[in-house]
Specification:
Blueprint: E1 2-6, H1 10-21, E2 25-29, E3 41-45, H2 46-54, H3 58-62, E4 75-77, E5 83-86, E6 95-99, H4 100-109, E7 116-117, E8 122-125, E9 130-133, E10 139-140, E11 143-146, H5 154-159, E12 164-175, E13 187-190, E14 194-200, E15 206-213, H6 223-230, H7 238-243, E16 251-258, E17 266-267, E18 270-272, H8 275-278, H9 287-302, H10 312-344, H11 349-361, H12 364-375
Parallel strand pairs: 1-2, 1-11, 2-7, 4-13, 11-18
Antiparallel strand pairs: 3-6, 4-5, 8-9, 9-10, 12-15, 12-16, 13-14, 14-15, 17-18
Amino acid sequence: MRIGIVGAGIGGLSAAVGLHRAGAEVRVFERAKAVRAGGSGLSIFANGLTALDALGLREEFETVTDKKVESLTAGQRKTDGSWIARLPSGSVGELRIVDRADLHRILLDNLPAGTVRTSAEVTSASPEGTLTFRYGPDETFDLTIGADGLHSRIREVVVGQVPIRYSGYSAWRGITSVPVDLEGAAGESVGRGRRFGIAPLADGRVYWFAVANMPERAVFADEKATVEQMFAGWHSPIADLIAATPAEAIGRTPISDLGAHLPRFHTGRIVLLGDAAHAMTPNLGQGGGQALEDAATLARLLAAQAESELADEDLAEVLSRYDRLRRRRTQSIAAKSRLLGTLFQLESAPLIALRNTLIGLAPPRLMAAEAERAQRWDPPES
């Protein structure tokens, strides 16, 4: 099979690795001039680790992460550092925090030279498998994978226009340039319409994110100074984390998701993967994990046929099975993630007090069961 993948993010590159190893001829097209990781960290829970294992990448991934993060006290804190609720020991399950740059490097290193073509902007696609580029001739593939993110052009071919929904909050993300002592604790701290998250990397540096309610197109003259001001007075080591991050390494992103669930993930010889199919808010830390699940599922389902051309009816059956396996699960997680974000971005003092009380009273076994539900996943039989 000749497979064309549009988008060189985590989902697209992971699918490329899996399908290449299955025997397919793979090309990845990225419209940017270079494959960039975005300068932030990524949480990978047990389901994502299972997907990496299915793709043959778990061993390399473990060399750039550390399981010690699982032993830190985690949960939700108030701005003064007092705990609203601690997660029960073991409820997080397997968890790794990775620098996106390290994960991108691993993925690229597992692809043959020339697999990824940058400055290759796809302007349209056909259900028959033909990709049209802004510059250069059309190319036709046995299968086209749309992994081109929230604003996917390939998605329009599959389901038409889908609204993009701004959440009402944006997030700064950064990685400290030096190790910072976390005093044995991580997780999220919540205030009035603001949150701060802490996640240590294997080398002692710390990935952090700061979330605040604001207009989608808000403009700040100095991003680092703004986040310092917004979170001034919050508990240690928040100020230290921001101070230890170079201003040029702090980026802010409006948090958006798809405004409607897609009725299908495929049409003809086109299939969607990752954010193109189910862009979600990051509140459950499952965006990367779900993209990895997509990639592992597609690679497993196509493995038996990857070394030969698939007839239309056979490919349709494979893609329909992928749709059945992936659409309900990803859309359910996306809905839960958006709800969680709404709860943690509340600005009303009475509602915040009620939320914190309910979280504090939640039975530990309920919290553990909910976390386990999202993280329980196995790749399909081929």
